[in-house]
Amino acid sequence: MTRLLGWWRRIAPTLVALGVALAVTAVFILIIGENPIAALVALFDFGETPVAQANSIGVWINRAAPLFLAGLAVSIGFRMGLFNIGVEGQYRIATVVAAGLGAAIVLPAPLHILVITLIAMAAGAAYAAIPAILKVTRGVSEVISTIMLNAIAIGIAAYLIRSPFVDPELGAGENVATTRLPESAHFPGLNELFGVLGLEEPRRPVHGFVVVAIVVGVVVAVILSRSRFGFELRASGLSALAATANGISSRAMVVKAMLFSGALAGLVGLSDLLGSAHRFQPDSFVAGYGFTGIAVALLGRNRPGGIALAALLFAFLDRAGPRLQSEGIPPAAVTIMQGIVVLSVLIVDEVARRRLRRREERRARAQDQATTPVEVAS
């Protein structure tokens, strides 16, 4: 019963925040002159035909996997007290390097995919090491350095796909891209799984990399809750001075946390790369996962399970964007809704935290008064 009550207290603020976000979004839709009821119906409309419904579910899955990985990457820094805004640049660099080097090697199918995955993680970790080293050696804020490195990553990626990784068949024109990955590097999709479940198969590829994302989430959850690294990460995030007093080097933990975060960020772009794109091309590269991952991590309270639910929610809202637009609601409404959800969660959390603190203070005063001996007048 106590565990159930504790679980309810953890999710109650989020449920309240979602209700507040829905109400505020409804007011926004009224202000722009549209019907909020029609918007709500469109939000849960997956299509009229079985094929359309399958395609919509496929888009949901394809969007959720990279958002989940981005949220995990951001959450590692949050647990350490670091604000790693550089996930956006880290997964861009990792995707370019993985696409270029992956196309240059020839290996059997499972091994080829594994090597590309390790290359992407190494590239993401290497790019994340830059702000980590700057912070521990020069005291440079990771917020400033990662923001700047995001912009630099765009230039580095543009250079890599125009010089060392360019597809010779395309040349260096406007439609420049990396060499296409061989079939041994194509990650199997989940389209046939729909047929096994008795559903219509989607007409678009459903990325099977979501299975890897789930495995990564489980591994990260175990590492954070059951390993020495996870304990040191939490201890350093709560109090660097106390952690140092117990023999934990805060400087080393900053580097380790950023490397771990960057390695997870390197996985973000592989879902699209190995599942459907099979090359890096600026026009088809999906940007923005890193920034949205910050909101996903906040909404998920830096816990892998919560981040998974937050990623599903944000992917669900993204999937509904075209349907909302058909009802006359601008696409920006989805972004506004996502922002309201995060803001509502933060506000409700702060209100709940303050109420809990006041309750604990009243309880402590009551206990002090009960234990204080009463002076008897002589």
Précis, in short:
This protein has 16 helices and no strands. The protein has about 375 residues and is mostly helical. It comes from Phytoactinopolyspora alkaliphila.
Q: Class, according to the CATH hierarchy? A: Mainly Alpha
The name of the CATH architecture is: Orthogonal Bundle
* Sheet having the most strands: none
CATH topology (fold) name? ABC transporter involved in vitamin B12 uptake, BtuC
Distance from first to last alpha carbon: 50 Å
Over the alpha carbons, how many angstroms does the gyration radius reach?
24 Å
Beta-strand content estimate = under 5%
Quickly give the structural class.
mainly alpha
Q: For the residues shown, what is the average pLDDT?
A: 88
Number of helices: 16
Integer tally of domains: 1
Low-confidence stretches: none
SSE run: HHHHHHHHHHHHHHHH
Principal-axis shape equals globular
Helix percent reads: over 70%
* Total DSSP E strands: 0
InterPro entries: ABC_transp_permease
Subcellular location: Cell membrane
Membrane topology: Multi-pass membrane protein
Pfam families: BPD_transp_2 (PF02653)
What does this structure look like?
The chain is mainly alpha-helical. It has one domain (52-343): ABC transporter involved in vitamin B12 uptake, BtuC. It is built from 16 helices and no strands. It has helices at residues 2-31, 36-43, 50-79, 87-104, 109-138, 142-162, 191-196, 209-226, 228-238, 240-245, 250-265, 270-277, 289-299, 304-319, 321-326, 332-371. Helix 3 crosses helix 13. It is globular and about 85 Å long. The N and C termini lie far apart (50 Å). 40% of the residues are buried.
